[in-house]
């Protein structure tokens, strides 16, 4: 009986020891499962972060691409605008719409007429800028002469002279002589006939605006309607800005049709072409000053 009891007691102790060895093993399995779950959670989190980073980088790349596209579009617009400006300049130059080209065209236009008659009216400008009644007139008749100096007749009224505030200057030329008489003087002067004395259609000889010694800076202002003409407008100013002159030229014929002059310290003057007739029939009688025959003649030829 004692041996059997001892054997049972030993068996019970062995079972207890085996039970203690198995419990830690199960615990370890549970812990490994938890660790695997944590690792899986961490891996999933890393994947989510990676996806977020990839999405952020993709968005950033998209933003950069959008900015590049915008910059490209802006550059294309600027390039197109620049090309248009350059094209406009080329067209303007080809059409003579730069100041020098317009003036050259006017000079050529004046040379193409074999005969004409015209009238300019000259007006003062009031302090408020309004144009006053005409204070003077310029009448010109011209006829080309193939055999020598050209014919012309000019009458300038309302010209301010040192002794006479209002007077008239008469000039005429035939191939024989240039005749000059100033109203109020007591003599007529004969000078050698030459084309350098022939008046131009324009108020001034237009070469003074474009020759090498020209003191004017020119600016083209556009096309405007004036004196019944569609006209190119040119603004001319001297380097010291003491003189400003506005000139208008007919877009069809090229001739000058208006001029505004402003000098420092003086009232402005507006000149308007009020009559122009080209290719008129003229004879030598149109180039004689008839009302000076009673005055003595001084021949300076």
UniProtKB/TrEMBL annotation:
Residues 19-98 are annotated as: Disordered. Residues 1-19 form the signal peptide. This is Outer membrane lipoprotein carrier protein LolA. Keywords: Signal. Residues 35-45 have a biased composition (Polar residues). It comes from Shouchella hunanensis. Residues 20-34, 46-97 have a biased composition (Acidic residues). It comes from the Bacteria. The keyword Signal applies.
